Amino acid sequence: MARHDKTGDPHTGDAHTGHAAHDSQLEEHAGQRHESGHAEHPDHGGHGHHGHHGHHGHGGHDAHAHHSPQAFRDKFWISLLLTLPILYFSEQLQAWLGYEAVQFPGSGWVNPVLGTVLFFYGVIVFLRGAREELAGRQPGMMTLISLAITVAYLYSLAVTLGLPGMPFYWELATLITIMLLGHWLEMASVEGASRALDELMELVPSTARRMEDGEFVEVTVDRLRTGDLILVRPGEQVPVDGVVEQGDTSTDESFLTGESKPIAKAAGDEVVAASINGEGAVTVRVTRTGDDTTLSQMQRLVAQAQSSRSRFQVLADRAAGWLFYIALGAGILTFLVWFALTPGVEQAITRTVTVLIIACPHALGLAIPLVTVNATALSARHGILVRNREAFERARDIDVVAFDKTGTLTEGRFEVRATFVQGAGEREALQIAAALEVPSEHPLGNAIVERAQELELNIPRVSNFSVVAGKGVRGEVDGTGYTVGRPEWIGEQGLELPEALQSGLTQAEDRGESVIALMDQARVIAVFALADKVRTSAREAIRGLQEQGIETVMITGDSEAVARTVAAELGMDRYYARVLPGDKARLVGELQRDGNVAFVGDGINDAPALLQANLGIAIGAGTNIAIESADLVLVEDDPRDVLAALRLSKATYRKMIQNLGWATGYNAVAIPLAAGVLAWAGFLLSPAVGAILMSISTIVVAINATLLRRTDLTG
Prior knowledge:
Layout: H1 23-38, H2 69-88, H3 91-97, H4 110-122, H5 124-135, H6 141-160, H7 169-203, E1 207-212, E2 215-220, E3 229-232, E4 241-246, E5 249-252, H8 254-257, E6 263-265, E7 270-271, E8 276-277, E9 282-288, H9 294-307, H10 311-341, H11 346-358, H12 362-381, E10 384-386, H13 389-394, E11 400-404, H14 405-409, E12 410-421, H15 426-437, H16 443-454, E13 463-468, E14 472-477, E15 480-485, H17 488-492, H18 499-510, E16 514-520, E17 524-534, H19 536-547, E18 551-555, H20 560-570, E19 574-576, H21 581-591, E20 597-601, H22 607-612, E21 615-619, E22 632-634, H23 640-675, H24 687-706
Parallel strand pairs: 11-18, 11-20, 18-19, 20-21, 21-22
Antiparallel strand pairs: 1-2, 1-3, 3-9, 4-7, 4-9, 5-6, 5-8, 10-22, 12-17, 13-14, 14-15, 15-16, 16-17
């Protein structure tokens, strides 16, 4: 394995020899987890606009920014009602279908009158969009729709007033109605993908039970402040973010993580707003309220992602603009050719209108927005919040994923990795050590207690307990005096370390593990080796990334021995030890010489590296992490979500390419057909058929984008 050794790190080789000596190692844990979890974010001074990420301003497909699905829905149904009599009285349809419409005085004016009403009622939304496009000097979809409809209406009106030819009232009516239907479906799709979090916010309770003068009093949620104590009863939604003070329960956080399994909660565990409390009543200390809650944070990030523009959206918008000029040129050329080859102007106008209609870049305009909206919604459901859409698209090209260690690959808390005993059984030694460590509350001692509890050992009571500063703890168990502490304390008490235990101590130190010893007044009974607990999910994440051909790297400020052990346990390709926070960004820059690099970190100290990387991924969004420095934010402390994010990026890219290919390919074929290149073979498209084909292309794009939601992110 390649290693990059740095000096000046607080984690020296003898830092793994006892309670006191481990303060330096614990400082790293505190600096990363607690600092990231509870400290205020520093001013990133523009970090929100990463120079290497090329952030775009908010834009996107906003032609309908002032409209809602309901508005298009209402217009569609009313337009449909107006269209039906127009179809019934159409002379062309009567001839085709072999029926004769009812005749009455003025029946000949039904279609002109209803067509005029329909034109001014239905086309207004498209004309407004066209005006905005032309004002911005970016003619596109709305301009093309407006041009086609206006040409069809004015020609039909001119025929009604005496111009020779056949009016297009039924084609005009069906075109307007179909276009309104397409836009209704579009807006409904966008709104449906964006509505989930809004609906969830509406379900969050408006009141809470706050402790006041020893009693829980019902107050509005907006009156809650950080530090307040509230009561959450079984079956209720948690109103704000907080930490459980008292009680045991489980919560449903599926909206946040995508995981339907209830999560057990006890004193000290975090709960988030909108999660559903399970079977137990708990008192919760408020940590975040209002816009600072995890749910509100999610809302902002989702909205930001959905409103931001990407490289593919910019490309699609440009293509739609080019298509406008192509369609306009094709329409003019079509008119001139047909006017020259056929008598009168009727056929020339019919072909021209059909070209303008069928060339409408509706599908092209929706190809990217619908994919990104669905991708953002899917990622949010899986606890992956996209902050920078362009960086998210680049995730498919990642070659190297570099991980911070503490709090990312490891849990940031110790576990007993090995127990070496002399003259006693392992279970007995754990019982005695756990008894002495119960009152100590030291992180290493807590690991001893947790191990005893895992083995369901009966932990005896300790008497005459005391703490010896810088060395360990002592007390009596069943009348016998014991001490637990750093190995150096062995010699100070005039005891010798047996050879078997010395061998265990050496092995532990070689692995970079922490060591504490259990002694009585006459001998050393046991040596415990402890280390930061490696996440089980980290092994799966590393293996999954490597299976995709992605190199995995660990960057840590910890000692060489610790880094080597963790990297070997996870099977990582490379590691760098003794790296100061300021040097992480430099190392990421070096890794970028070999390809695109994603950096995964959990703390404020990781911000420079998150900014340097091609893709910055912040893990653990339930706490106040350095979100401003990251492109993706993972809600859970689960490295497997990194793999899920990369899979989603690749799936999103495939859908974008498919939609762009369909939208452009459709126009490449449809425009010549609409112009009448196969007229010699008796094949001509009417404006109404052109409208139907254009709408079908839009539906294909919408369905394909929606299918993205079925992507399996678990592999």
